[in-house]
Amino acid sequence: MTDAETMLDRIAAAENLSELEAVRVSALGKAGSITALLKSLGSMDSEGRASEAPRIHALREQVTQAIAERKSTLENAELERKLATEAIDLSLPAPEGLSGTVHPVSQVMDELAEIFADLGFSVAEGPEIETQWYNFSALNMPENHPARAMQDTFYLEPREGEDEPRVLRTHTSPVQIRAMEAHGAPVRLIAPGRVYRSDSDATHTPMFHQIEGLVIDRAITLGHLKWTLETFLKAFFERDDVVLRMRPSYFPFTEPSAEVDVGWSIEKGRRVVGGQQGWMEVLGSGMIHPRVIANAGLDPAEWQGFAFGTGVDRLAMLKYGMDDLRPFFDGDIRWLKHYGFRALDVPTLSGGVGA
Ligand code: DAH
Known about the structure:
The protein is built from 12 helices and 10 strands. By secondary structure, it is an alpha+beta fold. It has 2 domains: about 5-85; about 105-340, BirA Bifunctional Protein, domain 2, CATH 3.30.930. The strands form 2 sheets. Strands 1, 4, 5, 6, 7, 8, 9 and 10 form an 8-stranded mixed beta sheet that branches. It has a two-stranded antiparallel sheet with strand order 2-3. Strand 7 (about 255-265) and strand 8 form a beta hairpin. Helix 1 packs parallel to helix 4 (about 45-85), helix 2 (about 15-30) runs antiparallel to helix 4 and helix 5 crosses helix 11 (about 310-320). The longest helix has about 40 residues, at about 45-85.
């Protein structure tokens, strides 16, 4: 005969889930004692069954419930134990081999912020979903301007109540307008961020990163622009022999406009920035077009300025020697381990921004 009390005692005494499971099987399993009692009902006469059945069913109910309660108690205790013993101290450094790396794009953005902070520039941001006014028109690229077609723009579905669809910004230049509107003048800032163009090959991805520079003040000249770019590129490439060449160019939002090349030379069989064996283009720049200053609500008779824009990914490739842009955005852990930076190596001018 099954003693209900013994069974309940054994359930209460089970110290872990496997002991409890053993008790459950011995009572309710195929060959369990309560299962046997249930089976025995079949061979009883109706009188015996009438008196025994309620007792046996009640026993089964009682034992089933006791097991469920004990199970939940043990599970909670197990969870408490895990929480207490497996707590992660997020302030501890990750063990060797387990730590992630800082992506070269983040690294270069940090380096640029550090360099320009030293020159008194702040950091500004703007939306990646932009109106055509900010992305084009305010920058002196009116509708039907050929420069709009040059940028392989992604157009979004029009929003209700808006007659013009928004775009994924094709460059960081719209932040120029937003910054002048928000802060007035004088202004000195950089604006790093994602930009989008429908383009894809070894050196183009549909999303990439740019950084914009903007200075607005009184009596700003091309000389200020050239000095700023030279100082920036020398600090960034960490070489004093960085030589700049400014070539006349055209951008709708600057007048005059210049494309800037840096000299390169071959060192140990590799092409590096510095010297002047050859030239490669690194950025676009110019004196802000008076119409752009007016579009941003300032008086161009009082305020002048310069701007420049360049690709952050491209700067990273030039400095750290990658020749394909696509793996930047593949999330391949081997690439990240190889080209990534240690999280604690924060770029500082005094320590060399290159980490
Ligand atoms: N927005 C231009 C582009 O994406 C780059 C650029 C050129 C930015 C000249 C500037 C500039 O601020 O002055 O191609």
